[in-house]
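It is worth pausing here to work through a concrete case rather than discussing structure prediction in the abstract. The textbook approach is simple: state the sequence, then state the predicted structure, then interpret. We follow exactly that order.
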Amino acid sequence: MLTTKPITVFFKYAIPSILGLLAISSAGIIDGYFVGNYVGPTALAAMNMSYPIITIIIGFAFMFAVGSSVICAKLMGEKNLKEANNIFSKSIIFIVFSSILLALLLYFNLDNIFSLFNAKEDLKNLTVSYLSIILFFMPILMVAIVLDFFVRVDEQPNLAFLALVSSAVANIILDYIFIVEYGFGIQAAAYATGISQALIFFILLPYFLSKKSSFSFIKPYGDFSSIYKAMKNGSSEFINEASAGITVIIFNYIMLQNFGTFGVTAYTIIGYFITVSLMINFAIADSMQPVISKNFGAKNFIRINKFLKIAVTFLIIIAIVLVSLVLSFPDVLIELFLEGDSKKSIENLTLQFIYYSWPAFLFSGISILITSYFTSIQRPFYSITIALSRSFVFPISLIIILPIYLGSVGIFITLALSEFFTFLIAIYLFLRKREKMPTSLINTNKKDYEVESLK
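Step two, the predicted structure:
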């Protein structure tokens, strides 16, 4: 991370991360395919209703995984391996206990939570049934997420990729067996997801118990203030996930009020388009976090700038390709999830969503990268500001205001406008932060970097 040519490092970390997260997101899409075609549109809507709870839990895991891993990456860049192992050990202890408590708290309140939606009884029952199974597996998934980030910091991106791909393949196989062969219904999708995600944990854990790992479990020393620091530093990741979940709650409510259960189903399908785009964006941003953090610890600022330029170029190319595909073949993905008499009305709603929301693909990647950059250099205020704008402030305010003046179009256009306004804020904060970086530090680092390059 500190000496290899930047373009080589970028692809070494970005490609496995992209493929791994795409594998996971494609497994989620295949979940939707099996549920939509073999269980029904109401079950597909139930999976979407479950999404906010799942994102809050995963957001907590990401907050802690990112916050603690970038701190450790910086320490490793400073050659302070002892303290890095101390924080690593504290992180694992904390996530084990907190994940169990969080899962139990949600499990015993599921019925009360979904009673607030005023959804039809069959939709509510399916949602509770699905989530009660998912929550059983959540603690092990949360620990696996933390291990996944630490394995990247330890310069093993291919192992992280192997774990994610293995999980995705297992999920597809189990979906087919449980849903198609045995007809177990939406509960089958939950078991398939839970079992496959547990596989990530069992693939990654042996690495940290081996001599290959730079990290090792030690008896923690000192207070647990580093836990608070990690959570603070990774808070933008929690906001990204949890706020997205809250936004989905609001969208689901508005879609239910305006279009009924079919509206939620249409929103679920467009969500699969968006998920693929976001997974690529997050994969690139996440893959750069340990790289930027280590170079930040080593004060390689020119090197960090090169990584950012490469990442931005790659994100722009990906966005153009995705937009071209979405606009050219929207009906292909829609047809994967819908069959029967209800197909036509849901398809029309989904196509309207696609027509108005595609510009979101163009702006989201750079905003997410800048958020990740600020987290990597431990500037949580800036990353939180962007994350809140993108996942909460703009989507919620626009989905409430725009329909008053634009009707249904206001609902459909909200995602694109939210991403555009967030993009403007992210660029402003990034340029402002760069202007504040001391010139003397940049010049000093340039000299050090040139010497290191000669070596």
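Step three, interpretation. The two ends are 16 Å apart (CA to CA). The CA atoms of residues 311 and 349 lie 34 Å apart.
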